[in-house]
Design brief:
The chain has about 250 residues and is of the alpha/beta class. The protein has one domain: Spore Coat Polysaccharide Biosynthesis Protein SpsA, Chain A, CATH 3.90.550.10. The chain has nine helices and nine strands. Strands 1, 2, 3, 4, 5, 6, 7, 8 and 9 form a nine-stranded mixed β-sheet that branches. α1 packs parallel to α2.
């Protein structure tokens, strides 16, 4: 039986000791306390496991063993989950302090199954950029148009969904190495519309060497191409600006 209002956060880790403590601390510092936090380590050799063990009394569960990539790790974590709500936070990203409390309250009050918040990007300690609240029409997601050439990616670190939706849609495909989020969002769109809420949820850390920095490999996995001028993202910006003016976001 799912725990009412509990959110399960899964963090997949592989050799991310430089950032991992900040990621874990951002979960520990949440004003929302009904959290199940699961960390799945793929056999790190850089000290990541030592950091995880330092927080072991505050972490609900952790595993350290060789896996088949990030989405295999996330799949394992969600299989262990007991929360009504699910999300994953990569080992170099962070949450804003009140993000989960605000998000869960909105989801509970409106019976939302799948939400995305205001995206934020960090390049270093002194540079945090927050974007506007973007909106994603269901036909965009269903047709796989959330790529740089079209509507732009859905920020995974600012996305929360119900376990019910996750199971109903067929769960995450652990065979993906890069674009498992893209595939999962497409499956979700067959059952629910993505709701944009006026809450800063996650902070995406932009750095060299991360999986998401190699756009060509990501796009090749879903048979898409990149483009020099992301015209679609311009339409997303204009559409979202107008929607934010006309319809007051939740």
């Amino acid at each position: 039986m799912l725990n009412p209002n509990k959110i399960t956060i899964v963090t997949p880790v592989l050799n991310c000791a430089k950032y991992l403590e900040q990621t874990i601390q951002s979960v520990m510092d949440q004003t929302y306390k009904n959290i199940e936090y699961i960390i799945i380590d793929g056999g790190s050799t850089d000290g990541s496991l030592d950091i995880i063990k330092n927080f072991s009394n505050k972490i609900s569960y952790y595993i350290s063993e060789k896996d088949n990539g990030m989405y295999d790790a996330i799949y394992k974590g969600f299989e262990l989950s007991s929360g009504k709500y699910l999300a994953w936070l990569n080992a170099d990203d962070m949450y804003f302090k009140e993000s989960l409390e605000k998000s869960i309250n909105i989801m509970e009050n409106n019976s939302y199954e799948w939400i995305v918040g205001i995206p934020s990007i960090s390049k270093d300690q002194n540079c945090l950029k927050t974007r506007i609240l973007y909106h994603y029409p269901n036909f965009i997601i269903k047709n796989g148009l959330m790529t740089p050439c079209y509507w732009g990616y859905i920020p995974q670190e600012s996305t929360i969904f119900t376990k019910n939706l996750y199971i109903k849609s067929g769960k995450i495909n652990k065979k993906f190495k890069y674009a498992g989020d893209y595939d999962l969002w497409k499956k979700f769109s067959n059952y629910e519309n993505l709701k944009s809420i006026n809450v800063k949820i996650g902070i995406f850390r932009k750095r060299e060497g991360q999986i998401s920095s190699n756009q060509k490999i990501y796009l090749n996995e879903i048979n898409k191409k990149n483009c020099l001028i992301p015209i679609g993202k311009i339409f997303r910006y204009i559409y979202s600006l107008l929607k934010n003016l006309i319809i007051k976001p939740c």
